[in-house]
Amino acid sequence: MFASAITIFAFLLLILAIAVVVMSFKIVPQQRAGIVERLGKYRTTLDSGPHLILPFLDRLRYMIDQREQVLSFPPQDVITEDNLTVSIDTVIYYTVNNPVSATYEIVNYIEAIHQLTMTTLRNIIGGMTLEHALTGRDQVNRTLGAELDAATSRWGIKVNRVELKSIDPPPTIIDAMEKQMRAERDRRAVILTAEGERQAAILTAEGQKQAQILTAEGQKQAAILEAEGERQSAILKAQGEGRAIETVFQAIHDGNPDQKLLNYQYLQTLPKIANGENASTWIIPAELTASLGQLGGIIGKVPVDGGGSRRRVDLDEQISASDLAQSTDTSEAVEEALEAARAAETKAPPTAE
């Protein structure tokens, strides 16, 4: 009987020892902080890892999560400066830096952040127009984040970032804004179309101007080249005719013709004169023989060398004074012969054949 009582007492002592060990050994997860109270008063803060506390005296009261947390609030109605009601959704990113302050300085820091966000947001949006609020989200985020961070710092909470998820104006305002934006887009489209047409007209006129300039320049160059070609052609033609005359003159000079040959050539030329386009009637002088005789007599005065020319005339040689005088005498003799033929023709009565 006594032995069984001892056994039971030992078993109870063992259970008590196990309970004391379990109550004394505490494990705090990573990025957590444990708040330990002794007899209802704050004693210490446990970091992540295993810890031992006094059972029945110490108590792990709170386990604070120190990771960055996201807090999203439902849409809140806010009135702008121009008396328009908008619905705004906010998202807050925060971190608990001081677990003791977050535990003992505020009862519910999440609800406190919610209420503080609502009042601060109304103050900020109340001083802005709707258009400014819609286009100034970054400014609202920075201002709201700074205000919340300053207010929650004494609670051991760090507000890292604040974002406005949406700003929803009333349906009537949305419809008016859509009409305004549509009118603005139409205006910009008209301006861009007019600007494009203007640029197109300018470019077209510039292209036509350049084309006319190039056409005129081409015509100018063509006219210059054509005139140059005509000049070169005239020069070459004149040179060819000069060479032909010089060649004929040289051949006559080399051939040394007599009176009979000249008369024969004159008779051969008369049919060619008669075959002209305007030669429907040909008048032959009665004293043609006398005229030919006088012509031959005068041509006979042309100084010739009966034995043929002893020297060939150089066409490029400089003409001396004696040669020039001799050429002048020859030209005068030819002119006199022609004048004599014309005189004989006018004195004699014409006969038609």
From TrEMBL:
<dbReference type="InterPro" id="IPR050710">
    <property type="entry name" value="Band7/mec-2_domain"/>
</dbReference>
<feature type="compositionally biased region" description="Polar residues">
    <location>
        <begin position="319"/>
        <end position="331"/>
    </location>
</feature>
<keyword id="KW-1133">Transmembrane helix</keyword>
<comment type="similarity">
    <text>Belongs to the band 7/mec-2 family.</text>
</comment>
<dbReference type="Pfam" id="PF01145">
    <property type="entry name" value="Band_7"/>
</dbReference>
<protein>
    <submittedName>
        <fullName>SPFH/Band 7/PHB domain protein</fullName>
    </submittedName>
</protein>
<keyword id="KW-0472">Membrane</keyword>
<dbReference type="InterPro" id="IPR001972">
    <property type="entry name" value="Stomatin_HflK_fam"/>
</dbReference>
<feature type="region of interest" description="Disordered">
    <location>
        <begin position="317"/>
        <end position="353"/>
    </location>
</feature>
<dbReference type="InterPro" id="IPR001107">
    <property type="entry name" value="Band_7"/>
</dbReference>
<dbReference type="InterPro" id="IPR036013">
    <property type="entry name" value="Band_7/SPFH_dom_sf"/>
</dbReference>
<feature type="domain" description="Band 7">
    <location>
        <begin position="23"/>
        <end position="181"/>
    </location>
</feature>
<dbReference type="InterPro" id="IPR018080">
    <property type="entry name" value="Band_7/stomatin-like_CS"/>
</dbReference>
<dbReference type="GO" id="GO:0098552">
    <property type="term" value="C:side of membrane"/>
</dbReference>
<keyword id="KW-0812">Transmembrane</keyword>
<feature type="compositionally biased region" description="Low complexity">
    <location>
        <begin position="340"/>
        <end position="353"/>
    </location>
</feature>
<dbReference type="GO" id="GO:0005886">
    <property type="term" value="C:plasma membrane"/>
</dbReference>
